[in-house]
Amino acid sequence: MKVKVDLDLCQGHSVCLGECPEVFDVVEQEDGYPQVVVLIEEPPEELRKKVMSAAMFCPNRVITVED
Ligand code: SF4
């Protein structure tokens, strides 16, 4: 499983962090706005459910998961 995010569309809602803090963090950028940081680009299989929840509930739908 490979996690990708579209940073052009991420608005830092932190829903991803709430769903799966093992894989997603949200940090303030130089411009003062928060954005997602992917901590593990290829997470282990046991995190799949949480990663998929993050992707599903991200308000901007910027998280994609590839196999
Ligand atoms: S929930 Fe989506 S828009 Fe919000 S910080 Fe996470 S990836 Fe970005």
Strand line-up in the sheet with most strands: 1-4
- Write down how many β-strands occur, each being a DSSP E stretch of 2 or more residues: 4
Strand coverage percent: 25-35%
Order of helices and strands: EHEEHE
Describe the largest sheet.
2 strands, antiparallel
CATH class wording = Alpha Beta
The level of helicity is 10-25%
Number of domains: 1
Task: Determine the structural class based on helices, strands and strand pairing.
Answer: alpha+beta
Low-confidence runs of at least 5 consecutive residues: none
* CATH architecture assignment name: 2-Layer Sandwich
State the CATH topology.
Alpha-Beta Plaits
Shape: globular
Descriptive labels:
single chain; 67 residues; alpha+beta; Alpha-Beta Plaits; two-stranded antiparallel ribbon; two-stranded antiparallel sheet; 4 strands; binds iron/sulfur cluster
Textual characterization of the structure:
This protein has one domain: Alpha-Beta Plaits. The strands form 2 sheets. It has a two-stranded antiparallel ribbon. It starts with a strand and ends with a strand. Helix content is 22%, strand content 27%. The protein is globular, with a radius of gyration of 11 Å. The chain has 67 residues and is α+β, with helices and mostly antiparallel strands. The chain is built from 2 helices and 4 strands. The model has no long low-confidence stretch (mean pLDDT 97). The site of iron/sulfur cluster (SF4) has 15 residues, from α1.
